[in-house]
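Researcher: Quick test of sequence recovery. Tokens follow.
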């Protein structure tokens, strides 16, 4: 099943959740292979984090938005 990327801009109305603040910085290049492996092998622990917010740079946000809009359908 294809994963659908949902990209949301930050808004001041976003409610705060009862979760610890992020304190660890990880390069996307280090993170993606691990997440892809967990997705591919259907590790259940990954589902615990699917609603977590991830902060990205503005330029990556623009690239992802453009990719989502211009990607050819299967």
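Model:
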């Amino acid at each position: 099943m294809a994963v659908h990327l949902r990209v949301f801009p930050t808004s001041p109305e976003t409610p705060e959740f009862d979760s610890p603040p992020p304190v660890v910085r990880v390069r996307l290049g280090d993170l993606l292979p691990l997440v892809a492996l967990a997705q591919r092998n259907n590790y259940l622990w990954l589902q615990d984090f699917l609603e977590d917010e991830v902060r990205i740079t503005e330029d990556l946000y623009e690239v992802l938005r453009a990719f989502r809009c211009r990607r050819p359908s299967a």
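The CA atoms of residues 19 and 52 lie 9 Å apart.
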